[in-house]
Structure formats: structure tokens, C-alpha cells
Amino acid sequence: MSKAVIFFAPGLEECEGLLCVDILRRAGVEVTIAAVGGSEMVRSARGVSVVADALAEEVDYPSYDAAILPGGLPGVDNLKADPTVRTVCTRFAAAGKLVAAICAAPTALAEFGVLRGKKATVYPGMEDALTAAGAEDTGLPLTIDGNIVTGEALGAAIPFALALAGRLAGREAADRVKKGIVYSY
Fold it and tell me: Which residues are marked as active site?
């Protein structure tokens, strides 16, 4: 069974984060919600509180296959400021492990140097952060370039999560989830 860690920081876009957790778990991926900011209780941008599975600094990352960053502000700023998130993303990318970010979160990957020479997408209006970091902005809802998966915004969260499920659990598992949630786009 594949394992993924998703970083929840105060101010995250809760729908992007929880949708990824839900779809990946439905596909059979073991998902750990890792809290950034020193508390397992993470409050989202819209005031939804989520209890994480662990603190980010306490997770044993070598056993994981993927790292995922949801968007949201100021959540993405909190992700950028966290040394554990930076280290995990850069090490995973260098090792060829799956690294994924949606909405504003690709700007964190850009800042970490993970997107240099890659195609990626980001929330509209934030494209300069990608191009300044040496990435090619596609402007698409979903972009996959090798081991890097990026999504444009909440509207792309289902295809983003299904793409991650396909990579981590196999196309058959992702298709089963897609059918089960009656997603037909």
C-alpha cells in the first residue's frame, strides 16, 4: 500500500486538503495528515478545525511515497515558512517521489526550487512565482510533469486527487473511486 503525507497548515483551503485525503483513502492509499505550526488542531481559512494525525516534525518520512500541499491563504505562507515541509518536498522531488500541490501551493514548490525546469499550474494571478522559479506555467486545471503534480484551484481538486490516486494506487483504484463518487467529467 502506498503512503502519502498531506501537510495541513493554519489557513489552509480545507476543501482541497480534505478532498485529497478522502479520495486517496477511498483508493486504498494510507494518508497521514501532518500538522504544521505546532498543534495537531489546524484551523482552516474559513474557520473549519481539523485534527491532524501527527505533527509534521514527528512523521517518519522515508516510508512515504508522496507529499501533498493544499492551497489556501495564509496556509501556503505557513507551509513556505516550515523547514520540515521544505525539506520533505525537496528530498522527495530529488528522489523521484511524488510531490503535489494545488491552488496557491505550487508557489511553495517554486520557492523550494522543486519546479525548476518543470511544467506546472497555479491559482490564476500567481503565475509569475512559477516563471520566476524557472517553471513553465501551463494555465491548465491539472498539470503532471514526471513526479510533480499541480492543480489550479479548488475547482480542479477532484481531478487533482484522482490523478494522485492513479499514481499511488493504480488506475483501476482511481477509476473505482471516480465511479463510486459519480464523478463523470
Answer: 103
